[in-house]
Amino acid sequence: MKQKINLPQFDYVNVKVNLESNSLIVYGAGMFIEPVIISLKQKGLNPLAIIDSNNSKQDTLHMGITVISPHSAIEKFPNSLVVIASAPHLIKEISEYCKLLGWKDVIDAACLLSDFDFDNSTFTNGVSQTNFNMDNYYFEYCRIYLPELVIVKQLDVMITERCSLKCKDCSNLMQYYIAPTDADKNIANFSVEKFATSVDYILELRVIGGEPFVNKECFEIIDFLKSISNKSRICVYTNGTIIPKDANLKSLVGDNIFLRISDYGGVSRNVTGLVKALDNANANYDVIRFDKWQDCAKIEYFEESEAQLTAKFKECCVQNYFTILNANLYNCPFAANAININAIPKFEDEYIEIPSTNVEDIRRIIRSMIYEKRYYGSCKYCAGRSLDDTPLVAALQTKTTLPFKSYVINRI
Known about the structure:
Elements lengths: L1 E3 L8 H8 L3 E4 L5 H10 L7 E2 L9 E2 L2 E4 L1 H7 L4 E4 L3 H14 L4 E3 L1 H4 L1 E3 L8 H20 L5 E8 L26 H14 L2 E8 L9 H8 L5 E8 L7 H5 L6 E7 L7 H11 L2 E6 L2 E2 L12 H10 L5 E5 L2 E3 L2 H8 L10 E3 L5 H13 L20 E2 L19
Parallel strand pairs: 2-3, 2-6, 3-5, 6-7, 9-10, 9-15, 10-11, 11-12, 12-13
Antiparallel strand pairs: 1-8, 4-5, 14-18, 15-16, 16-17
């Protein structure tokens, strides 16, 4: 699989000469160090050392390279080029610190993280977590340094409301659907194409449900998504119950597509067979075991202050994960499904009817969502979705569709 950010600002050519004509050291032994070192080595470049100011990280090894303090590094490698492998909001501070110590050439790692190859076993933390980290890197980087661009971290393309499981705490609210249906492939493809035309870049196109493989036309949507040029990758989310065959399996093979398998134990009954099928097809995938879930499937009106809503939005793990469902764009999967089942009201400038909205207005609304919103109207009906709060047993099943209260008339 290939990590490729198709934006000219992150073309490796921009830094190629500078990197290849200098000895290198890398600043930062955190979450980005592994992909940065992989990218450098694939380009025939071998850092002399890794720098980190955290004492607990010093004198350790990362991929065979020793981590040393900044003061030790400037003594040993005063003429080296420093590559900053840290979170974007720290780049300016670290760059100034490096130059204060005496280094003249300092660059960030954006052009390195944009272009390298990997497979299912490359990363210590797995493909899904590394992609998540790198998407956050570019989303934050562009917000700080390239604010003129409209960069979308994730776009959920919901291709079915149907699921092979009936989890009572499903965060996408499938347990409340009375008569779930599949998305129309032509409407879904048109909607994604128009959305992609409206923005500069999509870091990840996520094919979700329900369970995507319940939709027999799944492959036609996936194959169309491959044609979207301003994206990094496609990720198909599955619960491990269905083994795709024929065209559906073939659609999962490619350089910029992978399958994320959520393994919920016994109910994910076909994980082993699915992995075997993917290996035989030479498809990219990641298996993530979930024993605990967030308690975020309640639909209630929460009496919260502005400060509480802002804090809840800041901690939300699907913050600005836009969702396309039935030709409409929503600010997150909770809002998409809660509105779709008529549980909560629509809020102006928080959803878009894609067919009837011109490209310029779509771009304006998306930019407003990304840069101006401190929280959404739909947040008032959501319990919150913090990654660190997982009190529930994952994937507990219910035999019946669950009831819910509609706030469409009662609350505005």
